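Researcher: Next entry: Acyltransferase (Streptomyces griseoruber).
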Amino acid sequence: MRASLIQIAVEEGESVESRRGRVASLVREQAGAADLVVLPELWTTGAFAYEAFTDQAEPLEGPTYEAMAKAASDAGVWLHAGSIPERDPDGSLYNTSLVFSPSGELKAAYRKIHRFGFDKGEAVLMGAGRDLVTVRLPETTVGLATCYDLRFPELFRGLVDAGAETLVVSAGWPERRRAHWTLLAQARAVENQAFVLACGTAGTHAGVPQAGHSIVVDPWGEVLGQAGPGEEILTVGLDPAKVATTREQFPALKDRVLGRR
Ligand SMILES: O=C(O)CCC(=O)C(=O)O
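Model: Predicted structure:
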């Protein structure tokens, strides 16, 4: 199985419409190169462009949904389309990730559970998701997480309990905490004996330089590939069977004592 993480630069100089078109083209270019394509968090607005959340919020089946469903089916790939600022029919906002099948059908939507910002930004502007979400691909079961979620190991353990073998993290992680990003991605892979595919953004928006350095880690904690700081497509080959062999050969998950389901 091949996965491409599209680490785009999110900058204010580019309109949301233009970025949406550019990202759709990049997804289409993955036809034949990847089975699964992953995009970052809130790439239409930027994860720190708080004012734009309200201005650019869209219904679940809004313009980003439409463009990404079409890009997935044109390319014939599974597409984790990153997240959008979703406006619920009741008016509240959520940071919602979308996963499309190669025929362009929505297979999963995940509302970010842990909102970032403490008492400001996303934490006050957006509602919190409540549900863990997994989606079955032909070769692996994917568990969904978004950015700040990476700091909460219990979410990932819950996804593993729900059958996840590949953990996809869509993010807009800032450069100033890049060391945490790499460390936590590896930790989540090792402790859950799962692949971690973590896709962030490049560039600077709302005055916050982004970390880039999207990363793919295997169930033994080995880094299969890591992007640099700029815009880049990171394509990595994965052997999905490595989850089962790692869990069989080093069965630490079976030795859980606390919180076991
Ligand atoms: O946890 C962090 O350091 C970054 C989190 C973040 O930027 C986000 O969730 O948008």
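Model: Note for the record: The two ends are 30 Å apart (CA to CA).
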